[in-house]
Amino acid sequence: MTINRHESLGLSDQDVLELYRMMLLARRVDERMWLLNRAGKIPFVVSCQGQEAQQVGAAFALDREKDYTAPYYRDVGVVLALGMTARELMLQAFAKAEDPNSGGRQMPGHFGAKKLRMLSGSSPVTTQVPHAVGIGLAAKIEKKDIVSFVTLGEGSSNQGDFHEGLNFASVHKLPVIVMVENNQYAISIPLKKQVACEKISDRALGYGIPGITVDGNDPLAVYQAVKQAADRARASEGPTLIETVSYRLTPHSSDDDDSVYRNKEEVEEAKKKDGVLTFAQYLRDLNILTDSVESDLEQSLKEEIDQATTYAEAASYAEPKSIYHHVYGE
Amino acid sequence: MAVLSYIQAITKALAEEMKRDEKVFVLGEDVGVRGGVFRATNGLYEQFGEERVIDTPLAESAIAGVGIGAAMYGMRPVAEMQFADFILPAVNQIISEAAKMRYRSNNDWTCPITIRAPYGGGVHGALYHSQSIEAVFANQPGLKIVMPATPRDAKGLLKSAIRDPDPVLFFEHKRAYRMLKEEVPETDELIPIGEADVKREGSDITVITYGLCVHFALEAANNLAEEGIDAHILDLRTIYPLDQDAIIKAASKTGKVLLITEDNKEGSILGEVAAIISEHCLFDLDAPIQRIAGPDVPAMPYAPPLEKEFMVNKDKIEQAMRSLAEF
User: Which residues are within 8 A (CB) of A141 and not within 5 positions of it... i.e. 6 or more apart?
Assistant: First the structure.
């Protein structure tokens, strides 16, 4: 018998159903983008598949009215949970003028929206960690009750900015949560060729802060970990390093061929633990996700994504002459 | 008006801006209790406290990157790199992040950070405490690079940099810190970024330079005046983006142009200044454009005679100005 684990976390049945809806939306948006890419309609996709549980679970643990985030390029689940819409993601995928992230200037996966307090990201990895620490520093100077949440991949935890940012945040006890989404691969390089430590969270020891590892396929475990880290941050106890362990179910991007560096059996094995499937089963076991709820949900997501795709495909590109704008304040 | 040294002018600008706007804060290595290794932030820690004058861990990318994040929040950080030579670990943050923040977010996010760094040689600093590294950043749209030559300009330009809505690199010549002194207005004087300044009116030859070399050029010009050579001296002040109109006007005025930098010659910003003059002033020129710069060796050595061989000085400039006048 499946035990109800969400009630003790303060989450209602409605909350966890919404959490699942967001995970599934992320998955279905991502799947649609692959289809659009293979159909030649969008040039590029970089995927969230296999990481939706940790992304949505984490975002739900934040105060989505005031906290700041610095998501990395796989965080479709994070940005949807924070308020970006499927339409906005499609506008980004089609690189149209209305894309709120960059107006079609950046590749997909380079998120950012001031209205959502979501910092703009770039392609050189891990540069967002010091930025998130800067938000934490500003919050401390201004005495604002703000938590700054930043994500990255496990390969990125080797970058200097990871170390420099975490060390700064730890010395100054800043309200920062650093979440490493360990999906086992940095493009083709597996975890064991990226780090020699057992867990990415072991690195927290060097900063004198808590480091925890949780199952990234379990949104409730991630929710709990991020909630505790946020409580610590709000109590001026400093940053927390969280490692969420899951598996990248797709190639690195639409331009990658993962059959060169990993076998199908490994991927198939990982798919059995896919958080989207396992969390659905949890909700079914508790009779929260009934057959009718599930089919209604799939239908409404399909309509939402269809409409988003149609809108984005028909939307206009930015004017070519607009490339000269916003180099400096005008 | 009080007489201030170049570094006192810097300190005063910081104190005035911190007093004016609570969003302004300082971060860097040794900037707090110590008041900076050059004493540029002297007294600020006592006046504004440790939360606004922040001693950071020794890690330049974090100093820049954390400052960038705070700037995105809406603060006005002034980050100090202890020496310009040590800014290189922060280049990714400055070029990939600060410079492109407004552009890549389609004007959604901005990055109003000021990054101060002491540069320049002639102080027995050897290879890694003497360099001019402005050319590394001088083809990065989104950045502004300011290199003041006088105490008054240093104060007025630093205040403008802190109030600027975009990232500004502010390079201060460390030999100028205590060597240059002048009367600086007590008023809240803002000197605009992006505008060059004629430091000496003249009609025979034009010298275009920036930073400490302005001082050497002025000294040389005073000597040459006794020989009847009248030099026009333009101080670029902002070296990126360049004040093209001022360059064209100054070059056209005399038709004989000498460009001076302390940086290594090849790839320095002088090449860009020369290109602007070539594009716009060909028929006004009466002589080939001349350049004085550091030699194309990696950086200046420590031993005094070797350092002297590298450095631009008044005598080298005076000689070049005389030859150009006689051309």
Answer: B25, B51, B52, B70, B75
